[in-house]
Every structure is written in C-alpha cells, then in structure tokens.
Amino acid sequence: MKILSFGSCNLDYVYKLHHIVAKGETEQTSSMSIFAGGKGLNQSIAMARAGAEVYHAGCIGADGDMLLDTLKDSGVDLRYIKRVEEKNGHAIIQVSEKGENSIFLYPGSNAMITEEFADSVIAEFDRGDIIVLQNEINNLDYIIKAAYNRGMTIVLNPSPIDEKLSAMDFNMISYIVLNEIEGEHISGQNIPEKIISQLKLKYPNLKIVLTLGDKGCMYYDGEDIYCHAAFDVKAVDTTAAGDTFMGYFVASLIAGESSAKIIEKASAASAIAVSRNGAAPSIPYSVEVDSTISTMKLKAGRTASREEEIKEKINRYTEENIQDVNLAELAGKLGYSPAYMGELVKKVFGKSFGKYLMEKRCDKAAELLKNTHLSVGEVIRAVGYNNESFFRKAFTQIYGTTPYNYRKTMKNRG
C-alpha cells in the first residue's frame, strides 16, 4: 500500500506581530522569515517524518528549489513533481504574540495542475493505495473522481473552505479530516457531536476526524467515536498544526494502529508542532513523538475518561430530546447499533435504558413542578409520557411522594 500526497507547495512569508492586523490598521512587524510550507508539502513531510513512505505530486515554480530540498531532506519521493513556468505559490502569514495566525494565499504554480498530469500520476497507483488531498490546488474535483475510479482510498482535508467544495461528491471520500469551521460549513451544524452526526447521515461510508483546537479532537472510525483531549503546550505558531495532525493520522492509519492510538499520536505531534516557529520546520519526527508522548500532559479539566465522555453525550442527548428520546437515534448519533447502545447504557449507568430514561424524565418533571405553573398533566406530557397513571407511579417510586405533594412541598420551602 502506497501513499500519494497530491497537493500544494508554498513559500511561506511569516511576519511576527503583536496582534493580527485588523481592517484599516497598519502595524510594524518584529521579524520576517521565509519557510517551506503549503498544506500539501506540510502533510507530505509530516507523513514522512512519522515513518511512512510518501510520494508527493504537484507543480513547483521556477523559484521553488527550497521546497524541493525540504521535501527531499524529509525523505519524500519527488518523482511526481512537475516544474512549471509560473511563480511558485506562496502565503503571507501573520503570527501574533499569542501564536494565532492569519493567512492569505497566492496560488501560483499550485493552480497549474492539468487533467492530463493528474491522470498520468494516478495511473501509477493501484486499488487500495491512499491519496491525501487538500483544497490548495486546482482540479481537485477531477483528481477525486480519477482516484475514486482507480479504487484508491481518499483522505481529504477540505481546507481552505471555498466554493470549489460544492462541486465535490463526498460519497467518494473515505476519510475527512477537518476543523470546526470546516465542519460547520459542510454539515450546517456548529456543535461537534451534531457535525459528526450530520456528516454520518449524509455520507454513511465516510470516516470523520474533527479537530477542535484546544478542546482536542473526535474520530468516528465507522464503528465508534473516539475523543482525545488537547495536550497542554505553549503555542508559538499554529500554522502547521492541522497539517501535522493530518500527516500523523494517515501514517498511523496505514501502520495499522488502533483508533485511540491514531488520534493520540496525531494530537501529540500537532502539539509539538505548535510549540515551534514555522510550518515544515516545526513538524516533529516520530522518534521525538514516541519518546515524549508519555510525559506530555493533557489540558487541565479535559482528562475525562472515555466512560465519562459517553455519559456526558448520553445525558446531553436525553436532556435535549426529553419528550422524544429514541434509543435507535441515540445509537446513530454515537455511532453504535441500538442493541450495543442498550448494553453501553447499562454498563456506564448501571441500569437499563428504560430505567435510566424514566429517572431522567422524573428529574425533569420535578424541575418543572418546582419552577413552573404547568399543571401536573401538562408536566407529564412535557417530559414525554402519555400514560399519567404510569408516570405518577414512577415518580412516587423515585421521589417518595406524588407529583402534587412534591410541588406543594417545594412551594412551601420557597
């Protein structure tokens, strides 16, 4: 199995400033540096430094020797890189004292990829080989279709977001690695769990990695959702954070690592990268990641166990859908079968789904009885019960008194 990284190569002009320049504002920079960059180049280097064998394809301008040297030094195979008579693509990057960045791109040579060139490269790869793509090159839609028809496994980072993405058939994509902004653009949702849920609904065969900045990441591997907190490091330059994550994700995937290990290693590599200046120069080698990952600390307050994460998701779903809670829907949102979802609820809460739901509905009813003027019948319907007799019996069993007497007691206390 081979990895083809078909993507951009940029010269990055990095300017250090106190803060990101606002509209109409002029600010003097404290320094200017030139680095090798571009999402395609960064991802190729990250995969190579993670230990994978990587072939890079793309177009380099007459001024791109520095980029070729950087790729070669990291062990990337250059045979599918084409020289063109055009200035190389480049980026103007502002980096604030807090490590935040703002970037604009000149496509240059990255927009010189022809259909004929794409066909000639993809013809060198076989069914099951991996192609890694991002949205800094032209003819991306054509490349996706050609790779899909070839039977390749397609991994897409849909960055930067623009109108070109609307022409793409995401059903052809095997893996998508994106951040919250990109996730909202594609899914129409702005809550991480809902982004994943909507993408799963629209594209059933798509495996999803959602990076969440200092909140960590989530990975739906087609069967389960895995979460990982962000590592606690001082951010100096976040330019290559996503590309480093992407590269280590793919390299760990092809190495056959477990889903949990894949996102742990990708998160650690990304954390190391943001602690350094530059794009490509900041990407660590696997030996460094492997030797330091055990000593790296997660951000405070984000060390919840997998079981606690599952509890939180189940509770959130139940509270948001108290009237219409559905085990099958809950299972779909978390990426499980309904049968396994029932077993999981019993495992993490120590009770059946039916009993769990009854208790949550009674708790909500108690809240409404205490804080609203709804009649007891209206409260019962508001929490999803039609059988008043059943609810009254369940409420009395849990709270030791009838709904009416509970309200009376709470009002007297107030």
Query: Averaging pLDDT over every residue, what do you get?
Result: 91
Provide the structure class.
alpha/beta
* First and last CA, distance: 69 Å
Low-confidence stretches: none
Number of helices: 16
Radius of gyration: 26 Å
Taking the sheet with the most strands, its summary is: 9 strands, mixed
Strand order of the largest sheet: 5-4-1-8-9-10-11-12-13
Total strand count, please? 13
SSE sequence, one letter per element: EEEHEHEEEHEHEEHHEEEHHHHHHHHHH
Helix content: 40-55%
The shape, in one word, is elongated
Residue share in β-strands: 15-25%
What's the arrangement of secondary structure elements?
Blueprint: E1 3-6, E2 10-16, E3 31-37, H1 39-49, E4 54-60, H2 65-73, E5 77-83, E6 90-95, E7 101-106, H3 115-122, E8 130-134, H4 140-150, E9 153-157, E10 175-179, H5 180-187, H6 192-202, E11 207-211, E12 217-220, E13 225-228, H7 241-254, H8 259-274, H9 286-292, H10 306-320, H11 327-334, H12 338-349, H13 353-371, H14 376-382, H15 388-399, H16 403-413
Parallel strand pairs: 1-4, 1-8, 2-6, 4-5, 8-9, 9-10, 10-11
Antiparallel strand pairs: 2-3, 6-7, 11-12, 12-13
Textual characterization of the structure:
- The protein has a 9-stranded mixed β-sheet with strand order 5-4-1-8-9-10-11-12-13, with helices on both faces. Strands 3-2-6-7 form a 4-stranded mixed β-sheet.
- 43% of the residues lie in helices and 17% in strands.
- Strand 4, helix 2 and strand 5 (77-83) form a beta-alpha-beta unit.
- It is elongated, with a radius of gyration of 26 Å.
- The longest helix is centred in the C-terminal third of the chain and has 19 residues, at 353-371.
- The model has no long low-confidence stretch (mean pLDDT 91).
- The protein has 414 residues and is an alpha/beta fold.
- The chain contains 16 helices and 13 strands.
